[in-house]
Amino acid sequence: MAKVQGVKTLIPGSCFILIAIKSGKLSILVAEMAQRKILILTNRIPYPLKDGGNLAMNAMIEGYQRSGWAVYLLAMNTSRHFIEQGLLKKLFTRLFAFEWVDVDNRLKIADIIRNYFFSKEPEHAKRFSNEAFREKLKNVLTSFKPDVVQVESVYLSTYLPVIHQYSPAVTVLRMHNVEYQIWHGLANKHTNPVKRIYFNSLTKRIRDFERGAWKKYDLLLPITEKDAQLVGRLEDVNNMVVIPFSIDIEKIKAANNEKWVGYHIGAMDWIANREGIRWFLEKAWPKIHQAEPGFEFYFAGRHMPEEFKKLNIDGVHCVAEVPDADAFIADKKILIVPLWSGGGIRVKILEAMAAGKVVITTTYGIKGIEARQGVHYLLARKPDDFTRGVKWCLDNKPAAEEMARKAQQLIMENYESGKIIKRVTNEIESLLAGKQERDV
User: Fold this and answer.
1) What is the Cα–Cα distance from 334 to 352, expressed in whole angstroms?
2) How far is CA 291 from CA 33, 357, 389, 390, in A?
3) Residue 247 per-residue DSSP state
4) What is the rounded average pLDDT of the residues 295-319?
5) What is the pLDDT of residues 177-198, one digit of tens each?
6) Cα Rg for the chain, rounded, in angstroms?
7) What is the mean pLDDT of residues 303-312?
8) CA 96 to chain centre
9) pLDDT value of position 191
10) How far apart are CA 170 and CA 186, in angstroms?
């Protein structure tokens, strides 16, 4: 009997070539590969694409879909970020499937108090535990039979037992932040003793919950190298690959008659954004306005607090929620990000750099972005630093433009979406191949 030798080569487009040599003759066979299937779980609808969290989730969803994967999105339509049914039916139409479950995750004082005194789990995780979502998840796992289940929030780790019971899929956790760091930073900033006690308690419970969850996934996808290093120091996890937020360069809109003014845009229901803007307006803005009376600052975002809308400060403009974030940003040159807590990566900074803006931010703001101080951005650690940064931009516009150009080049080389998603799919394919070998 003649021997048959074969070499299998993967080719984009869900097919492979089998090169076979039989009786001295070369045969080339092209066969269809089974399309990879991924179920993505989110604790909110990744829409509208105006804040960092939604943009980061959407980048992963689109990345898998463009890579030829069948993407099933199962999302919570929460009361805090509720979207009407009519609009939902128009979203994510290019995916294999998109379904959602309405979930009431409102903050309730009684639940917070009960959780503080009687539970070791953080209230954040309990608010996303929902029986209807659990039942829908069971149905999707058994009918769709995904190769991979990717969870977009550590607080959805309460569903891991269901996933493991109903599916042999590879489990992936997308780490947008190291969550407990956010609350640790807020606890250290707060002067209110009651809030500080609560935030310290919450920090401990989130830390314990988070560390326990990391070890249960087949693969962690932290968004920054620093987050990955922290995880590695704290826990022995299965597999981990740093996957930063990726930018679709083609979608970045060109600047339009830029004015040398400052701006900030971010969801104001995220406490780190809210506290950062409050600090900036109270501590830094008076000094900036004194040094540069003609300089103006515009800030926008969803869920803008009424106290900000009612502000009457010379040179400061609260725009609240804007219908088009790109249009808001287009004519403004200097992004100011006064962030004092949080892990993860600041999507708005990456987008601003890609668009050729000058960025002034804190060590927390630039965290996770491989940029160099004084080359790609201006670092500010205290109010006077923000003042000096603004003044330098206004007095040295050609040098500031060159800084923005270098930052733009950095983003194009290191954060382009096609390169990033390829790293993810390669790692997952490796895990799937190893799993298949063990099952044989």
Assistant:
1) 9
2) 64, 22, 11, 9
3) B
4) 95
5) 888 887 777 777 767 887 788 8
6) 24
7) 94
8) 22
9) 74
10) 35
DSSP codes joined into one string, 112-165: HHHHHHH-SS-HHHHTT--HHHHHHHHHHHHHH--SEEEES-GGGGGGHHHHHH
Q: What is the dihedral of CA 219, 438, 40, 174, to 10 degrees?
A: 0
Structure tokens at 241: 């690959």
Tell me: the pLDDT tens digits for 389-405?
A: 999 999 999 999 999 99
Sheet holding 378-379, edge to edge: 316-320, 297-300, 259-265, 332-337, 358-361, 378-379
Torsion sign, CA atoms 307, 308, 310, 314: positive
Residue appearing with tokens 């917070």: 112
What string of H, E and C letters represents the secondary structure of 405-417?
HHHHHHHHHHCEH
Which structure tokens are listed for 198? 């609560």
Q: Residues 69-91: pLDDT tens digits? A: 999 999 999 998 999 999 999 99
Tokens of 435: 């799993």
